């Protein structure tokens, strides 16, 4: 048996945090920080060394993009 999750019907987090009609845009800085965190966790869970290395390359790429942004 498969259950499909439709966040539009289940009350997505963004629907609960922001009133209807609000446009919420994530900043580039927040996006890259979120990706760095996600990739660090994925690297820690990686089964193979190759997968871990790919994750570490992505982390480095995101950190470089963050450093290139104006404060």
Compact overview of the structure:
This protein is 66% helix and 0% strand.
What does this structure look like?
The structure is a single chain. The model has no long low-confidence stretch (mean pLDDT 81). It is built from 4 helices and no strands. It is flat, with a radius of gyration of 17 Å. It has helices at 7-10, 13-17, 28-45, 49-68. Helices cover 66% and strands 0% of the residues. By secondary structure, it is mainly alpha-helical. The longest helix is centred in the last third of the chain and has 20 residues, at 49-68.
Keywords:
single chain; 71 residues; mainly alpha; 0% strand
Major beta-sheet overview: none
Strand content: under 5%
SSE order, as H and E?
A: HHHH
How big is the Rg?
A: 17 Å
Q: Categorize the overall geometry.
A: flat
Mean pLDDT score, rounded?
81
Number of strands: 0
Structural class: mainly alpha
Estimated helix fraction? 55-70%
List the helices and strands and how they pair.
Layout: H1 7-10, H2 13-17, H3 28-45, H4 49-68
């Amino acid at each position: 048996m498969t259950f499909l999750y439709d966040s539009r019907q289940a009350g997505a987090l963004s629907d609960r945090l922001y009133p209807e009609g609000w446009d919420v845009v994530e900043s580039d800085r927040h996006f890259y920080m979120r990706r760095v965190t996600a990739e660090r966790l994925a690297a820690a869970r990686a089964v193979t060394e190759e997968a871990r290395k790919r994750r570490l390359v992505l982390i480095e790429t995101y950190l470089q993009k963050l450093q290139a942004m104006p404060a």
